[in-house]
Amino acid sequence: MNQQLAAHLGAIVRLAREQMSLTQVQVADRVGLNSVVYSRIERGHMIPSVETMKKLCIELMVSPEDLMGLTESSGGGARARPEDDTNLRRLIFVARKLDEGKLDALVHVATELAR
């Protein structure tokens, strides 16, 4: 098992779960896992199957790239907190599912909030 991947994956699912105010039991139920198994994933002691990773992406609104650690920045420059990058990617992940009208509304709301 790749320990670095397991640790990264666990940290990402934990952060996403906490940001959604869900318990480990709730997430485990939603993806069809025993809560003990889900806890092992969050602690970085286990890499889930591809099917379980897909379910985690859907339930926690995390892109597969984020989950697998494929989007980590390699460039320089000042960066915000890592969780900010995760939130932006989650927003993009959700926005891609919207129809044109809802996406326009989201852009309008985001523009107003940024003022």
Describe this structure in words.
The chain is mostly helical and 115 residues long. Helices cover 68% and strands 0% of the residues. It contains seven helices and no strands. It has helices at residues 3-19, 24-31, 35-42, 50-60, 64-68, 82-95, 100-114. Helix 2 (24-31) packs across helix 3. It is elongated. The protein starts with a helix and ends with a helix.
Topology:
Blueprint (H helix, E strand, L loop, with lengths): L2 H17 L4 H8 L3 H8 L7 H11 L3 H5 L13 H14 L4 H15 L1
What would the keywords be for this entry?
115 residues; mainly alpha; single chain; 68% helix; 7 helices
Could you give a short description of this structure?
With 115 residues, this protein is mostly helical. 68% of the residues lie in helices and 0% in strands.
Q: Overall mean pLDDT score?
A: 85
- Elements, N to C (H/E): HHHHHHH
Helix content: 55-70%
- Uncertain parts: 73-80
Shape: elongated
Which secondary-structure class do the elements indicate? mainly alpha
